[in-house]
Write a structure and sequence with these properties.
Structural class: alpha+beta
Bound molecules: coenzyme A
Strand content: 25-35%
Strand order of the largest sheet: 1-2-3-4-5-12-6-11-10-9-8-7
Number of helices: 11
Distance between the termini: 20 Å
Largest sheet: 12 strands, mixed
Order of helices and strands: EHHHHEEEHHEHEEHHEEEHEHE
């Protein structure tokens, strides 16, 4: 795969526990003619989290872009050159897409997303088969890891991923609500990060990461979290702030605003465990003020779970926990 002309998802070992899938199903990369049935299946893959954070609008836009001849030509050209940012795989039977799964390349890790099977075709091993070839693909692309995010309540998908060797790495709580109006406590004003300050802050955030996560998603000034694959839809604006004491960082927050979905995401990237609820509130306040000033309809605050020190802050903001997601990972080589 990659750099060649074939778009077949070949040489997949589905493991000894699975019956081989029916042979009339073709597993390959997305073609232009697949778009109508691909779209139908992809929409079925949108869960409560995607709806809560307005992601369905990004999916609609992505499909519209793929339908445009110019965008599609670019997409195919990049695929042919072996440098696509995203690989979209489909399972096709009699010209109809029955299932799909995509793979997006981050620096060290392949992120699996857009996994869905048509409701009428579930339980036939389609998702399992689409995903089973991904470790070999990731290895060929020099990525040692695969990762995906799944809603904690999605027991079916979690079972499929576990059988394929993915294990839970960490959980995130997603708080959603209208952006509150906030005043900043003057004694603790975060500094907006740009240029060299942003680079230094990224190094600090990287040092604060769990040792287990750091090799998969190294923090750089360009990327603070793998969750950015969800926040960073086209035209997303990004800003970062740092709270410090005696010249040392005590907290870093990053905010993303997507005009497409009218949603602002606030991601406290790292904070000192000793920070008070008041300081945590100060840390995220400029991010929320910025998102509000842009006219966002919705604010989404994402925190690793559990984060008990944030509870009073969340109560002040009137945000409610909408969903818990699980980051699942597996080695691409094992
Ligand atoms: C999660 C989802 C993608 C799974 O797709 P699928 O194609 O049905 O998955 P599979 O068929 O590979 O596996 C599902 C079940 O069928 C069973 N199965 C797999 N191959 C089979 C076969 N050849 N014969 C009989 N049963 C089979 C599996 O054992 C599994 O059963 P269990 O987990 O209930 O024990 C699908 O349910 C879906 O689209 N859900 C909505 C969207 C979604 O949740 N996406 C994931 C977002 S992270």
């Amino acid at each position: 795969m990659g750099g060649g002309t074939s778009d077949q998802l070949a040489s997949i070992d589905v493991g000894p526990c699975m019956k081989p899938p029916p042979s009339e199903i073709e597993y390959r990369e997305l073609r232009r003619a697949d778009l109508p049935s691909y779209e139908k299946v992809l929409y079925q893959g949108l869960g409560t989290l995607e709806h809560a954070i307005g992601l369905e609008r990004s999916v609609v836009t992505m499909i519209q872009s793929l339908r445009g001849r110019g965008f599609w030509t670019l997409f195919v050209l990049l695929r042919w050159l072996g440098v696509p940012i995203i690989r979209i795989f489909v399972a096709v039977e009699r010209g109809q897409v029955l299932g799909t799964a995509s793979l997006l390349w981050l620096r060290k890790t392949g992120v699996v997303l857009g996994v869905a099977t048509d409701a009428a075709a579930r339980g036939r091993g389609i998702a399992t088969h689409l995903l089973a070839g991904m470790p070999a693909l990731a290895q060929r692309k020099g990525r040692a890891w695969l990762a995906l995010d799944v809603a904690a309540e999605n027991a079916t998908a979690i079972r499929v991923y576990q059988r394929l060797g993915y294990t839970e790495s960490r959980r995130y709580a997603w708080y959603v609500g209208p952006p509150p109006e906030l005043a900043l406590a003057s004694e603790e004003t975060p500094t907006e990060l740009t240029g060299p300050k942003l680079r230094t802050a990224a190094i600090w955030v990287n040092d604060q990461q769990d040792a287990e996560i750091r090799p998969l998603f190294p923090v750089t000034e360009k990327s603070f979290s793998h969750l950015e694959v969800i926040f960073q839809v086209p035209r997303t604006q990004v800003k970062s702030w740092e709270l410090s004491a005696s010249g040392e960082p005590t907290g870093v927050v990053r905010a993303y605003y997507s005009p497409l979905t009218e949603t602002g995401f606030v991601l406290p990237a790292a904070w000192s465990p000793t920070l008070s609820a008041g300081s945590l509130q100060s840390l995220v306040t400029p991010a929320i003020q910025w998102i509000r000033s842009l006219g966002a309809a919705r604010l989404v605050l994402v925190l690793p779970e559990p984060s008990p020190s944030w509870e009073p802050v969340l109560a002040n903001f009137g945000l409610t926990k909408s969903e818990v997601s699980i980051l699942m990972v597996r080695s691409a080589t094992a």
